[in-house]
Amino acid sequence: MVTVTGVVETTDRHGVIGRPGGEPVPALYRRNTPLTKASVTLYGKFRNSKDSRLDVLHALMARVGELLDGPAAEGQSQSQTQNGQSQSQSQGQRPAEAVLVPHEGVEHQEAAAKLPRPPATDYAHAFIGAARALGIPARYVTGYLLGDEDEASCFHVWAEAFDEGLGWIGFDPMLQLCPTDRHVRLAAGLDALSATPLRAVPAGDGTIEVSLSVTVE
Questions:
Q1: Quick check: is 24 in a domain?
Q2: Residue 102 has pLDDT above 50, yes or no
Q3: Where does the Transglutaminase-like domain start and stop, copy by copy (predicted)?
Q4: Is residue 35 assigned to a domain?
Q5: Is residue 55 in some structural domain?
Q6: pLDDT band at 207 (very low <50, low <70, confident <90, very high)
């Protein structure tokens, strides 16, 4: 067991981290990893955008939420009748492991709202992968999210993307906001594997002896 106590002072800077000293060059975080491969569905519409990078990043955060929240949010499937033919149009999609429900009116919406949401890790990886596909440096952040008075604090993850003017800016695509003073930042890396806030190292020389006993009756 590892126990850490102390006081962390945080400031709400609307997600702007800036350019902390002693960090790797931002270009390092353009490199994709197996965990951050994003579908063109996420970023395709932003490829030729004339908007500022900041506007693109905010729109990208909204896009990630729209697709990953799926029918549990405002992306419920809609049935349309056109030219005498019934068409089912899905505005969102859920992860492959989620259970799909029939696309029928209010009952569908109520059932969809009960579907499990993807973990924060999925939102962060999707945002980072889409940003990198657009040539924008982005990285994975681990930390804590302070709860309200009646809520316990919890481990949480989000993303940061680089803007030439403002430096690093935080984006929490699961909560659909830029990190506030409730976000306690611990570590940043290329993805979840490289941003683990705590790692264990085996004692000794790392050699593990395994014994096996077989009894034949």
A1: yes
A2: no
A3: 114-175
A4: yes
A5: yes
A6: confident
In a domain, 75, yes or no: no
- Give the chain as a DSSP string: -------------TTEEE--TTPPPGGGGG---GGG---HHHHGGGTT--S-HHHHHHHHHHHHHHHHHGGGTT---EEEEETTEEEEE-S----TTSPP----HHHHHHHHHTSPPPPHHHHHHHHHHHHHHTT--EEEEEEEE---TTS--EEEEEEEEEETTTEEEEEBTTTTB---TTEEEEEEESSTTT--S-----STTS-----------
* Domain residue limits at 131: 16-69+117-189
Report residue 61 as tokens.
């955060």
Judged against a pLDDT cut of 90, whether residue 76 lies above it is answered with: no
Domain count for the chain: 1
Pick the residue with more confidence: 65 or 211? 65
